[in-house]
Recover the amino acids of this structure.
C-alpha cells in the first residue's frame, strides 16, 4: 500500500514489466556461470583446511602432471603487492591484504583461505589435480570470537598490526584490535546519575552471510595483445577493473570487465576473489578460464558480515532518553575493516539524545574477511539499542512506539558525529506505524507477542554516468553502467521516460561493460535508482535541449523560443502553434545535424537518509523453541517510489533476511575454526514456508536532493527486524533474548534455564 | 574417464548425448548441451535453482546423474513457454515483480509448474509448502507466492 | 564561515573545543585554517593529498568522496566520521 496523494507523474509510480524480465523468466538471461567461450577451460582453487597457519611449502609438481591440467598457480605468480591503502571503489583497501586474501602468501588466516589454483580441461580434472598439491602448514591456534580476540593474550593474526586511534596514534604492542573510534557528547555519567530508569545489557550477534543464491564466478581471457577481458557477476565492474589492475599490476586501460547478470549480492559481490586467479590461469594456459566457487566456498571464503558484541547502557528521565553508553566490538574477519564505524554512527540516529559515549573496535579474527552486507554495521547496532528501548518502555510504562516518537530525531537534531539532520522521515514512520491497522489490532492468544523497532541508514550518492542515444524510430537506447541487481533497468528507464515525456517501453536500457560507458561506482549503498537516476535525468534534459535546437532550426527561430513537454517540441507565437513529436525529430536526425545523444555524468549529492519502523507479531512454541512470524508490517520513508513493486520487493526481501538473521542464521564454528554448517541445509535461510506475506507501507516524503524525490530504499529494511523480533519474543514469553540467533535450541535453553 | 551414450527426450526433442558417469544432469544440461537456464546454487539439492521435471516430477538436477536420463523425458525452463507465448506462471512472475536478481526464477517456475500441473488451484499455504525447496534471497517470497496464486487463477479446472 | 565539528578523539588538539567556526571556500582551505588553530588537525584527516582511508568527511551529514577542492557554502557543517561502506 502507499500513502501517496495524486501523482504529478505519468510513468513514475506505475508498475510496468521490467525490460529484462522475459529473458529471466525463460532462462535465457546470461549470468556469470553461463559464460561459454571457444577453448574455455575450468579453474578451481585449493583452500586451507586450517583456520590459522603458516604456509611452509607448496609443491605443485604432481598436480601439473595430472591429466587435462594446463596451468597451476600459487601466490608466487602474483606480482609483489604494496603494503598500502588505496581507494578502489567503495572504501579504501590495503593492497597487500587484497592480494593475500585472493591467494595466501605466507599465512592462512581462515579455513577456506585459497592457497593455489589449477586450470584443466574439465572441472573434475581440476578438482582431482587439486588433491595432488602438497601444502605443508605450521598450524597455529585460531581466535574465533571478537571478545576472545581482544584479550591481551590472544593469538595474533599479524605481528605487525597495531591499534590505530582516530588521533593517528598507534598502540605500543601489536593487537587484533585494528582500530578504535569514538563519538562523545555531553556528560554521560551525570545523566545516568539522574535517570529514572536504566537498562544495561550485553548484546551479541553471530557472523552471518548475505546468502545470494548465485556463487561467485569469473571467466577471464588473457588476450594475445596483453589485454584482459573478464566476464563476472559483480556489483561494480569498475571496482573489479581497478582491483584486478592493482593485484596484477596491469594497466587499467587494458582490462575490460563485462558485467554478466548477477544472482544477488547484498554487498557481498563488491570485493574480488576469483578474477585475478582466472586471469593468471588464462595467461599461463593460453585459454579462457572459468572459475566458480562452490556453495561451501561461498560460505567459508567470501565476505559475510561481522559477529558483534555490544555492551550498552541506556538511561531515561521523564520519558526522555538522556544517556547512552555503548561499546561496540565487531569482527572484521581475517583483515581489518568491519563496519563498526557505521554501526557506531548510526545506532542512535533515529533519536535525539543529549549525552552519549560510543566506542567502536574493529577486531580481526580467524574467519573470512567481512564485506558489506545490506546496511553494513547497522542491524547489530539497532538490535542493541532498539531492544534496550523496548525494555525501558516497559520499565516506565510507556508504549514503545510513543517512547520512540517522543524521542525522535527531526530536522535540526544532531547526529552523533555532530551534524544537524536535514528533513528526515523517522517521526512520519513512527506515526504511520502507530496508526496502522496492524498496531491498532489486538494481539491475543497464549505465547504470542508483538514487537516494534526503528532503523536508519545513511544512503550513498557517488558517481554515475549514462549515455542515451535516440534511434530513428523514436526509441532511445539507455546505456548505463550500474549492474541490475533487482530491477534498476526498469527504475532508470522509467526516469528517462518521465524526463522525456515518453512511454516507458520506448526506452531500451542496457548495462554496458567498462569499455563502453563512463565510470560508475558500485550498485550498492542504496544508490543506483537515486544516483544513476540523476544521471539519467541529466541525459534526458540533454536530449530535450538537442530536440529543441533541431526543431527551432527547422522553423528558423531561436532555440529558446520553443519548449519541450510531453514528448513534443512546441513553438507558440501569437499567430500559430507548431509542433513536432519526439519521433518526428528523431526520424529526421540525419538531415538536421546527425545522431542525437544525451549524456549524464555526475557525482550525486543529496542522497538523504532512510528511516524505517517495523511491527511484528510472533508466536513462540515453549516446547520446541520455534518462533513463528504471524504478521509483519514494515513502514518506510521511501522518498518517491519509482516502481512501487520493486520498492516493496526491496523492503520484503530485507525484512526476510532480517528474520533469518534473528531466528536461525549463524556461522557455527568448532574450536579449530571449522565452519560446521557451510551448506544451505545447515545454514538454514528462511524458506517460503517460514514467513508470511510482508506488508510494506510506503511513506512517500520526496527527497529534495533528487529531481524526482528518490531516496535509496534497499538497505534500511534489514535494520529493524532483529530487534523487532526480539521485542516480540520478549512480549510473548517475558524473557529478554540478547543473543542472536534466537534459534529453537537457544529459545528452549533460555526459557527453561538449560544453557 | 569413459563417456557413456545416453538417449533421452529433452524439452520435446529426442536428444542423444555423451557424459561421464559422475556428471550430474545439471552438468550435462549446462556444460554438454548448453541449456544454462537451470542454475547451480548449491550443487547438493538444498536451493532448488536447478529444478527440472524428470518424467513429470520435480527433481534437483544436481542430484540426478546424467546417465539416469536414459529413456527419460526431461523438461527444463527452456521447455516452458517462449517469448511469444509465455506460460501463465512466467507472465504472472513478470506482472507481480516476483523476481529481483532472477537467478532462482527458473527453478521456481519449474517447481511451481509441477504444482499447478497436479493441483491447479492451491491455497497460499500449499504454495508455500510446495515451494519450500526453492530458496530466494531477494524477494522475501511475498511476490513469488502472489504470482503463483495469480497464475493458478488462470488454470483451467482439472478434468 | 563553515562549522567544523571536532570528533571527540581530536578535541585535545583543539583545546577541548567540540565545534569551530572557520572560514574556507574549499574543504582544503577550511582544514588548513583549522590546522592553524589546532596544529596537527590537517594531518589527522588528510594524507598524501587525500582523505585518510580510515576516515571520511561528511558535509552537511552526507558522507562522500569529497575532493579537497569541493566548494563549501557558508553555513556548511563539516564532520570527520569513520569510513562507511554500503551493501
Amino acid at each position: 500500500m502507499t500513502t501517496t496523494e495524486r501523482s504529478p507523474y505519468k510513468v513514475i509510480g506505475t508498475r510496468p514489466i521490467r525490460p529484462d524480465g522475459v529473458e529471466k523468466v525463460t532462462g535465457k538471461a546470461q549470468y556469470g556461470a553461463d559464460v561459454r567461450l571457444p577453448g574455455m577451460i575450468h579453474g578451481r582453487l585449493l583452500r586451507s583446511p586450517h583456520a590459522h597457519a603458516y604456509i611452509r611449502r607448496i609443491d605443485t609438481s604432481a598436480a601439473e602432471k595430472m591429466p587435462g591440467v594446463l596451468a597451476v598457480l600459487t601466490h608466487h605468480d602474483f606480482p609483489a603487492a604494496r603494503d598500502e591503502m588505496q581507494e578502489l571503489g567503495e572504501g579504501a583497501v590495503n593492497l597487500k591484504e587484497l592480494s593475500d586474501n585472493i591467494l595466501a602468501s605466507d599465512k592462512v588466516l581462515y579455513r577456506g583461505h585459497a592457497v593455489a589454483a589449477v586450470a584443466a580441461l574439465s572441472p573434475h580434472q581440476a578438482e582431482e589435480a587439486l588433491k595432488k598439491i602438497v601444502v605443508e602448514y605450521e598450524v597455529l591456534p585460531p581466535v574465533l570470537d571478537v571478545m576472545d580476540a581482544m584479550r591481551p593474550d590472544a593469538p595474533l593474526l599479524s605481528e605487525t598490526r597495531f591499534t590505530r586511534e582516530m588521533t593517528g596514534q598507534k598502540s605500543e604492542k601489536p593487537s587484533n584490535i585494528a582500530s578504535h573510534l569514538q563519538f562523545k557528547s555531553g556528560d554521560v555519567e551525570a545523566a545516568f546519575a539522574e535517570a529514572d530508569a536504566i537498562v544495561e545489557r550485553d548484546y551479541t550477534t553471530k557472523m552471518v552471510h548475505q546468502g545470494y543464491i548465485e556463487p561467485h564466478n569469473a571467466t577471464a581471457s588473457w588476450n594475445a595483445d596483453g589485454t584482459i577481458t573478464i566476464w563476472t557477476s559483480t556489483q561494480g565492474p569498475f571496482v573489479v577493473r581497478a582491483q584486478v589492475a592493482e593485484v596484477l599490476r596491469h594497466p587499467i586501460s587494458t582490462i575490460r570487465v563485462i558485467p554478466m547478470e548477477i544472482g544477488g549480492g547484498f554487498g557481498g559481490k563488491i570485493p574480488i576473489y576469483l578474477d585475478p586467479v582466472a586471469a593468471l590461469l588464462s595467461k599461463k594456459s593460453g585459454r579462457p578460464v572459468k572459475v566458480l566457487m562452490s556453495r561451501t566456498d561461498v560460505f567459508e571464503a567470501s565476505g559475510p558480515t561481522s559477529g558483534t558484541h555490544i555492551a550498552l547502557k541506556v538511561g531515561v528521565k521523564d520519558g526522555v532518553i538522556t544517556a547512552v553508553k555503548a561499546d561496540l566490538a565487531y569482527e572484521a574477519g581475517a583483515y581489518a575493516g568491519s563496519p563498526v564505524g557505521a554501526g557506531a554512527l548510526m545506532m542512535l540516529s533515529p533519536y535525539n539524545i543529549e549525552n552519549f559515549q560510543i566506542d567502536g573496535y574493529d577486531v580481526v579474527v580467524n574467519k573470512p574477511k567481512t564485506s558489506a552486507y545490506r546496511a553494513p554495521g547497522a542491524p547489530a547496532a539497532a538490535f542493541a539499542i532498539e531492544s534496550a528501548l523496548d525494555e525501558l518502555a516497559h520499565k516506565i510504562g510507556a508504549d514503545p512506539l510513543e517512547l520512540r516518537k517522543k524521542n525522535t530525531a527531526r530536522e535540526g537534531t544532531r547526529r552523533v558525529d555532530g551534524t544537524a539532520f536535514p528533513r528526515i522521515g523517522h517521526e512520519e514512520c513512527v506515526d504511520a506505524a502507530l496508526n496502522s491497522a496492524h498496531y491498532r489490532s489486538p494481539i491475543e492468544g497464549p505465547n504470542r507477542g508483538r514487537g516494534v523497532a526503528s532503523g536508519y541508514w545513511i544512503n550513498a550518492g557517488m558517481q554515475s554516468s549514462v549515455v542515451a542515444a535516440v534511434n530513428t524510430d523514436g526509441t532511445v537506447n539507455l546505456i548505463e553502467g550500474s549492474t541490475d541487481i533487482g530491477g534498476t533497468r526498469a527504475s532508470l528507464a522509467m526516469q528517462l521516460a518521465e524526463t522525456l515525456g515518453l512511454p516507458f517501453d520506448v526506452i531500451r536500457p542496457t548495462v554496458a561493460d567498462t569499455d563502453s560507458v563512463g565510470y560508475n561506482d558500485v550498485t550498492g549503498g542504496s544508490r543506483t535508482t537515486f544516483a544513476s537516476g540523476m544521471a539519467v535525468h541529466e541525459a534526458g534534459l540533454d536530449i530535450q535541449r538537442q530536440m529543441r535546437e533541431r526543431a527551432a532550426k527547422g522553423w528558423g527561430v531561436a532555440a529558446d523560443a520553443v519548449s519541450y513537454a510531453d514528448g513534443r517540441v512546441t513553438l507558440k507565437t501569437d499567430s500559430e502553434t507548431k509542433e513536432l513529436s519526439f519521433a518526428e525529430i528523431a526520424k529526421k536526425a540525419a538531415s538536421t545535424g546527425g545522431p542525437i545523444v544525451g549524456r549524464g555524468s555526475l557525482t550525486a549529492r543529496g542522497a538523504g537518509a532512510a528511516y524505517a519502523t517495523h511491527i511484528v507479531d510472533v508466536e513462540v512454541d515453549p516446547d520446541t523453541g520455534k518462533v513463528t512470524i504471524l504478521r509483519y508490517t514494515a513502514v518506510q520513508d521511501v522518498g518517491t517510489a519509482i516502481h512501487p513493486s520493486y520498492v516493496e520487493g526491496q523492503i520484503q526481501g530485507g525484512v526476510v533476511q532480517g528474520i533469518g538473521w534473528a531466528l536461525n542464521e549463524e556461522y557455527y564454528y568448532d574450536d579449530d575454526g571449522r565452519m560446521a554448517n557451510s551448506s544451505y541445509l545447515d545454514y538454514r535461510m528462511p524458506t517460503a514456508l517460514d514467513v508470511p506475506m510482508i506488508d510494506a507501507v510506503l511513506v512517500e516524503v520526496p527527497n529534495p536532493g533528487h529531481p524526482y524525490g528518490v531516496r535509496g530504499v534497499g538497505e534500511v529494511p534489514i535494520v529493524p527486524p532483529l530487534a523487532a523480533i526480539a521485542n516480540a519474543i520478549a512480549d510473548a514469553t517475558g524473557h529478554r533474548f540478547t543473543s542472536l540467533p534466537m534459534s529453537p535450541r537457544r529459545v528452549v535453553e533460555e526459557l527453561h534455564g538449560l544453557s | 574417464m569413459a563417456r557413456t551414450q545416453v538417449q533421452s527426450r529433452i524439452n520435446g526433442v529426442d536428444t542423444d548425448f555423451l557424459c561421464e558417469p559422475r556428471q550430474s544432469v545439471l552438468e550435462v544440461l549446462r556444460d554438454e548441451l548448453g541449456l544454462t537456464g537451470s542454475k547451480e546454487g548449491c550443487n547438493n539439492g538444498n536451493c532448488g535453482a536447478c529444478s527440472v521435471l524428470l518424467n513429470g516430477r520435480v527433481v534437483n538436477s544436481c542430484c540426478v546423474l546424467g546417465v539416469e536420463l536414459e529413456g527419460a523425458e526431461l523438461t527444463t525452463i527452456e521447455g516452458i513457454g517462449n517469448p511469444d507465448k509465455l506460460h501463465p506462471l512466467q507472465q504472472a512472475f513478470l506482472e507481480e515483480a516476483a523476481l529481483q536478481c532472477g537467478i532462482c526464477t527458473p527453478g521456481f517456475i519449474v517447481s511451481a509448474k509441477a504444482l499447478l500441473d497436479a493441483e491447479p488451484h492451491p491455497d497460499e499455504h500449499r504454495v508455500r509448502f510446495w515451494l519450500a525447496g526453492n530458496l530466494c534471497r531477494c524477494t522475501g517470497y511475498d511476490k513469488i507466492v502472489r504470482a503463483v496464486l495469480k497464475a493458478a487463477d488462470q488454470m483451467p479446472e482439472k478434468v | 564561515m563553515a562549522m567544523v565539528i571536532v570528533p571527540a578523539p581530536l578535541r585535545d588538539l583543539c583545546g577541548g573545543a567540540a565545534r569551530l567556526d572557520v572560514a574556507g571556500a574549499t574543504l582544503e582551505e577550511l582544514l588548513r585554517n583549522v590546522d592553524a588553530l589546532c596544529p596537527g588537525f590537517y594531518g589527522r584527516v588528510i594524507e598524501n593529498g587525500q582523505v585518510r582511508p580510515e576516515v571520511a568527511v561528511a558535509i552537511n551529514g552526507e558522507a562522500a568522496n569529497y575532493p579537497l577542492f569541493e566548494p563549501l557554502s557558508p553555513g556548511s557543517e563539516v564532520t570527520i566520521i569513520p569510513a562507511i561502506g554500503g551493501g
Q: What stands out?
A: The mean pLDDT of chain A is 96. Chain A is about 30% helix and 25% strand. Residues 54 and 558 of chain A are 74 Å apart (CA to CA).
